[in-house]
Amino acid sequence: MRHEDFPPPTPRRGPVFAAAALAGVCLTAAGCAGDGGQDPKAGPESASRSAVSTPSAPQPSAPAAPPSASPERRGPLTGRTVVIDPGHNPGNRDHTREINSQVAIGTGHKECDTTGTATDAGYAEAEFTLDVSRRLRTLLEEQGAKVVLTQDGDRPYGPCVDERARIGNKERADAVVSVHADGSATGNRGFHVILPAAVNGDGADTAKIVAPSRDLGERIAGNFVRVTGSAPSNYIGDNTGLDTRDDLGGLNLSTVPKVFIECGNMRDPNDAALLTSSGWRQKAALGIAEGVGSYLKR
């Protein structure tokens, strides 16, 4: 569900990118396909120990050395930081008072967070976003990136949308992706990537992130088409797979490049069949990861 999204916004029109054009982003962007690898450091050498013995008394064995820490993964994204923001939280439904509290978003005030949507069969968006985000974390860490999640099922609710933005800012992230699924009408299908609009006021200033966020979003959209086979939304973004909004605190308050991705519509049975498939969720994570990788390796 669109984060902080009641009622759904009026789609904004922008440059036209058809599905084929989105896939072209992958073909033309340097480093589009994921090519991460590992070059782990060799383990520590065994320390030599001198043994002292006497004819009358054997010396006790030296204590075993403590196990060495696992070597850090290294790859093409080593030294880069990515923040992944799993939309909503499974516990939000049990903390309605807290999540309904108002927070400043730069263009006004909105609820701290929302519960998110669900499929007709009851598969919650908050469960979907955590699953895809964890898969995405694994893929990016395999390429050497430092990955931080805004929440990992380890909080009773939230965090609020303003705190989600602050986490990315504090980490000085090279890229932030907020993972969602939409809750639109049956027949509305496909994914879209939400980009930050130009916002300045009430603690928000997106001037420096609008252009790099668009680059990040276009690369994610192109790779998402290629890897998942899903088409851009047929109800948001004029078939570009891109939508620009100024009413989302998670974007307005960010000082680092950030986008949201609505991976599909949970209320449409055809999209729901994809979103509830573990195999498709892995493809979704891979499409996002390759888009992020393409952006960071540009």
Shape type: globular
Task: Determine the N-to-C terminus distance.
Answer: 30 Å
Based on secondary structure, the structural category is alpha/beta
Q: What is the gyration radius calculated from CA atoms?
A: 22 Å
Parts with pLDDT < 50 across at least 5 consecutive residues: 2-20, 25-70
* Mean of all residue-level pLDDT scores: 84
Strand order of the largest sheet: 4-1-5-10-6-9
Topology:
Layout: H1 19-28, E1 81-86, H2 96-99, E2 102-104, E3 109-111, H3 125-142, E4 146-149, H4 161-170, E5 175-182, E6 192-196, E7 200-201, E8 204-205, H5 210-228, E9 242-245, H6 249-252, E10 258-265, H7 269-275, H8 278-296
Helix pairs in contact: 1-5, 3-8, 5-8
Key structural traits:
298 residues, 8 helices, six-stranded mixed beta sheet, two-stranded antiparallel ribbon
What does this structure look like?
The chain has 298 residues and is α/β, with parallel strands linked by helices. Helix content is 31%, strand content 15%. It is built from 8 helices and 10 strands. It has helices at residues 19-28, 96-99, 125-142, 161-170, 210-228, 249-252, 269-275, 278-296; strands spanning 81-86, 102-104, 109-111, 146-149, 175-182, 192-196, 200-201, 204-205, 242-245, 258-265. The chain has a 6-stranded mixed β-sheet, with helices on both faces. A two-stranded antiparallel ribbon has the order 2-3. The protein has a two-stranded antiparallel sheet with strand order 7-8.
